[in-house]
Structure formats: C-alpha cells, structure tokens
Amino acid sequence: MIPIKTLVACFVCLALAIKVNEWLHIFGFFDPLKSHLVINMKDSHLVDK
Using an 8 Å Cβ cutoff, are 31 and 24 in contact? Predict the structure, then answer.
C-alpha cells in the first residue's frame, strides 16, 4: 500500500504543476507542447498539399 504522505506529495506536485501551467498561459509565456503541436499540424498540412 502506498503511504498517505506519498499520495499527498504527488497531489501537491500535480496541483502546483497545473497552477504554474495556468500562470504561464495567463502571462502568455512560451508553451513548448502547444507550439510543438501547432508546428506538427502545419508540417502535416504542408505534407498533404
């Protein structure tokens, strides 16, 4: 069985990661994942034509 402390720590880390991600979006910082997806979509679009 996983210790409660470990679960709490995981939950806190996850919540922090989500909060940081929200702040990055609010402040308009570079979002590598989104940019990567957009680039991939553009590339596949170019390949289709």
Answer: yes
**Could you report the per-residue pLDDT of 12-35, keeping only the tens digit for each?**
999 998 888 787 776 665 555 565
Per the CB < 8 A criterion, the answer to whether 31 and 25 are in contact is yes
- Output the CA torsion 15→19→21→25 (10° steps): 160
- Looking up tokens 């402390």, which residue turns up? 5
Contacts of 45 (CB under 8 A, 6+ apart): none
Q: Where are the domains of the chain?
A: 4-48
Specify the pLDDT at position 45.
56
pTM of the model: 0.44
